[in-house]
Amino acid sequence: MLKAIDTDLWVAEQPLKYFGLEVGTRMTVIRLTSGKLMVISPIEMDDATINELNQLGEVIYIVAPNLYHHLFVADFKLCYPHAKLWAVSGLERKRPDLQIDYIISDRSIHQINGVEYLLVQGFNTLDTSGCSPLNECVFFHIKSRTLIVTDTVFHFDDQCSPSTRFIAKLLGGYNQLRPSILEKFATQDKVKVKCSIQQLLAWDFERVIMAHGSIIEQNGKSQFKAGYEWFLETSL
Ligand SMILES: [Fe+2]
Predict the structure, then answer these.
(1) CB–CB of 112/38 below 8 Å?
(2) What is the CATH number of domain 3-232?
(3) How far, in Å, from the CA of 62 to the mean position of ligand 1?
(4) Rounded to an integer, what distance in angstroms lies between the CA atom of residue 214 and that of residue 231?
């Protein structure tokens, strides 16, 4: 079910396990300046959520924001066949079955109907097949001063499952807005990441919506900056 976060901004959440841990996942819905809708990182839809979404407006853009959040894109596209699919570079090779309309490939900041976006390049993380790029596109909803990320940072607090809480405490990221510890070791092109994070920090955001963990409502920018201190303060 959709949850209103701010003017023209909604999220919907569902349970999701990753390596046996319940981390949940979240999609974000933005009403663009045109009045139409953009959906970032779609989840599995049910009839009730489809009805709610249809009442908000017409979905014209579906975004697969990194190389990992594509699981429900094909089914989502079936619900909204006229919507255009935006995907990060590399997804066309990973998911050749998807009909991708636009590849997000530029590192400089751009706009889609009033929503700024930026690709965090050189950003790698580990998956079961080894080391592969996350290649994440992040968004800034100017009107609500909201940064929308997917896996760039997590925020596991007392709302998450006991086992996820335990692991977050073990790895040192509990109750904090932090990149995954794997990113520390697996990021290959730190110069590109640093450049992207610096551009991202030029945005004037307060709230942070991420795919996994609890939404940060206040001081999101300083918390995000604290999470990337190890990157920003290291001379590369
Ligand atoms: Fe994720």
Answers:
(1) yes
(2) 3.60.15.10
(3) 17
(4) 23
Ligand 1 center to 68 CA (angstroms): 6
Residue that wins the pLDDT comparison between 180 and 64: 64
- The reported pLDDT for the residue numbered 236 is 60
Alpha carbon of 211 to ligand 1 centroid (Å): 6
Distance between Cα 152 and ligand 1 center (Å): 9
What residues are paired with 133 via a beta bridge?
124
Tokens of 17: 């396990």
Q: State in Å: Cα 219 to ligand 1 middle.
A: 23
Which whole number is the average pLDDT over 181-200?
A: 83
CA distance 221 to 205: 6
Q: What is the pLDDT of residue 173?
A: 87
* Residues near ligand 1 ion, CB 5 Å cutoff: 151, 211
pLDDT of residue 130: 58
* 123-143 mean pLDDT: 79
